[in-house]
Amino acid sequence: MEERDDEISLRDIVLWVRAQYKTLKSKWYLILIASLLGGGIGFCNAYFSPVEYTAKLTFAFSEGQTTRSNLSGIASQFGFNLGDGGEGAFQGENLLELMKSRTLVENTLMQEVVVGGKEDLLVNHIITHEFNHSETNEDRRHDVWFLDTNRFFLGDSFLGVYHNHLLENNRLSISMKDDELSFVDVSFTSQNDTISKLFVEGLVDQATQLYKNIKLRRSEEAIAVLNQKIDSVEVEMAKSMVGGAQELDRGTLYIRNTPKVSQVRNQLQTQILGTMHAELVKNAELQKTIMAQQTPLFELVDLPKFPIEKKKASELKGLFFGGILAGFLISLWIVGRGAFREMMGDN
Q1: b/e per residue, 237-248, with b = 16+ CB within 10 A?
Q2: What is the mean pLDDT of residues 74-94?
Q3: Domain range holding 38?
Q4: Omega before 259 cis (within 30°)?
């Protein structure tokens, strides 16, 4: 009985498939019309879609030396903390996340560039080429027009939305070629080849400068403190030397010149200050050497060059896939409607 039931069940499936085939065959004109309409929509969508240009830039970077051997130990003997060169949160692949941050993207957009012989903020060029002829009309475009680098509410809102648009739609892509090799690929897609090129170059320049500042901030602060202390010691040492010379001059007026307590004190103070000054200068130079070793190095490997890579939706693919999709959907609707009526009739 189980085998008989299975045969009946399989037979029912075969019969149902045949019935649906006959139904679809009888409705061939609807499927044909839907396919033609879908193909036409796909063709028009591809034909009127804007041309997009993708600029790519590759650069290599080296973190610099992070080991100090005995240098930190020598400096710590004199009470100076040479820092860690800004390591920790800003190491290696975190540079990629730093380049995607809203701050860097906005700073790049607010740079003065020349596109088509016209000098203006990069964000204004993007508004002109990408939003002036789309859903944003002329009046609305002027509402978010940037006159200078000063921020305003609507402008900040536009920058935030555009930043999310870049990341969500893969307009801005940043990746590392190899985990072991420090080669970074940066690409940006827009509707103007010059804009794409200038954005990529500006973003990389902004990121490398900020990354260097972050990595070297502690070392620079340590050098600034050391220089300040050097200046203070030099002032005090000069005062002490002048005071000692004045005491010596006064002593020459006496018939018998005998050392005085003030003279001895000034000499001792001058020696102490001289020793302190020498150690401060030595540590300042030591810190400069360490900072030079820690400075990350960036080398541009491949720069975007004209002509920029161009992408345009294929009208043939739009026609083909649009027709296939529309034909499939109308067929699914016909089969579903028939199944629904059959189910309602059984009830």
Answers
A1: beebbebbeebe
A2: 53
A3: 2-48+313-346
A4: no
